[in-house]
Structure formats: C-alpha cells, structure tokens
Amino acid sequence: MSDLVIRRPDDWHLHLRDGAMLEGVIGDTSRHFARAIIMPNLVPPVVTTADADAYRERIVKAIPGGDRFEPLMTLYLTEHTEADDVARGKESGLITAVKLYPAGATTNSHGGVRDLDKVMPVLERMAKIGLPLCVHGEVTTPEVDIFDREAVFIETVLDPLRQRLPELKVTMEHVTTKDGIDYIRSSSGNLAGSITTHHLIINRNAILVGGIKPHYYCLPVAKRESHRLALRAAATSGDARFFLGTDSAPHVDPLKECACGCAGIYTSINTMSCLAHVFEEEGALDRLEAFASLNGPAWYGLAPNEETIRLIKRAEPVTFPAKIETGAGPVTVFDPMFPLYWDVA
Ligand code: DOR
Ligand code: ZN
Fold it and tell me: Would you state the pLDDT for residue 107?
C-alpha cells in the first residue's frame, strides 16, 4: 500500500505553550490535526475555567489563517481547585478534561497534587458529571527508580484511586511500559491510554548510547525495548482503548542542551509520517485510522472528524527541518533515526 486516506486525526495530548512559542508551533499541529487536548502546564498553570477561557482565546488567535483547528481545554488540578468551577467549565463546553500532575513529576508540575485526599471532592464531582481525568502516571518518591515510576504509580496510586472511585473516567496518558498496557487491557472499563509517537520509536538507548542525547529525553522517560514493543503492539492492535497523544513538548534548544536539560520531545511536525512508518512496519496500516482518528474521539464522547487526510508513500525520503525557528528560539525536531517516506499530501 502506498496511498492511504484516513479521517483527519486528533492529538489527545499536546503542549502548545504560550506567546512566541505558541505562535511558532501551532501551525505544525493545525496543518494535520483537527483537534487537540491542550496541556495546562503553563507558567503559571491553567487552573480555573477563567484561565482556560483566556488561554483558549490566545490559542485561537494564533491559528494560521485557513486552518480549522479546535483546542480542547484542560484544567490543571491543584489542591485548591473548586469542584463548582470545574463543573461550570464542563457544562459550558469549555473543558474537556482535568489534568492530574503529581507534584514534581515533570515540567511545571510543582503546583500539582501532593495528597490525593485533598482533591477527592473534585474527582467525585467529575465522576458524577462524566468529566475525564487525564493522568501523568508517575510517582515522585525519590526512592523509586525513574524507570519504575509508572509501574509503581499504577500499583500505589492509580489502582487504589480507581477502586475508590470506579465511576471516574481516567485517561492514562503517555503510557510507556508493558505494565501500563497490561493494566489498561485488564481493566473492566473507564480506563484508556494515550501513546506518544516517540515512545513507539525510541527506547532508552536513544538517550544514553554514544553520549547523552538531550533531544530524546522526555517524561515519562523512554524504557527498555520490551516496553516499546508492548506499546507498538497495543497501538497497532486496533483496541479502542489506545489512541494517539503525541505529548509534543517544545523547549528551546538552550533549555535542552545544558547541564540540566528539560524533558520534552517535539514531534508535531512529523508525527503522521512517523506513525505511518511504524504502522507499516507492523503490517497494520489499516489500523492507523483507529489509533489516530477514531479511538480518541470515541473515548472522549466526540464524533470523529468528517474531513480526511491523504498519506502517500514517496519514492524518496520526505525531509523535515532539523529545527524550527520560533520567536522564542530554535526547537529541535524529533529525529526518528530512519528515513521517512510517508508524506501527508
Ligand atoms: O517530556 C515531557 N514534557 N513530559 C511531560 O510530562 C511534560 C512535558 C513538558 O511540558 O515539557
Ligand atoms: Zn505532556
């Protein structure tokens, strides 16, 4: 197969940032994607529906003319979040999900949640009104090895929470382990998982072999090969509980290429080419549409996009810039380390 038409995809986990960075990156998403769930970890974070409303307006203003793109807004859960504000956000149609960052787990997560008990009233209200919780599933306990943080989170935080509140709809975001995949597969409902483009392509060797490669560093950190293979199997299986959330997370190069570099990989620009490559390798091109365009909307209770995109396999590799220039500075583009032949026509 060298020509594939699928419904226009959506990105169920995206960092657009703000200001000059937002303006520099949004076109790479709106070119191919119809909608995206927008992460709220700005500085300061998007905590209230008023914050989300204002941020949404800034995003809409930055969409390049001619592109149709709908940002789906989230709230950053804190121990001071008010259930009524969240409920109003959902009712008005502004808010698609609430994001749980365990405090200290990743970029700008220090205002996140330390004690789940403190947010139970909000979670109970969300369960009642059918508002999903998007979870960054890693514990931050210093004793836990960074490669085990997801597995330990499932056992000590996520599973207890789901038993306590089975009515709550939970998206386990950017699943990076076989443990996560197995946990989602074994659940009886109200649980789904997003998978990034880069975690389907790299394992932890990409970060560490032959020198430290900051542009492959993200959180949750890429794991060993057996986990990557489990992610590939899940993504390409057609199982409706798995869908695309790129977690494309731009940082300017100086903040990545330094003694303490930020976590985040920028994939918006070449995600569809990378995914077509992966699905072709797995003999699953016919299931790319489910992963990128159908399973996500079904989970979030939305209709799939009516428009389509066309992917064409070129005879020569398709090239992407090594970096994009934004008003905030240069951002390195994810290099999958193999040539890409699939092009969005
Ligand atoms: O790699 C990551 N980058 N993981 C996250 O969880 C946050 C993100 C960011 O905001 O840079
Ligand atoms: Zn993220």
Answer: 85
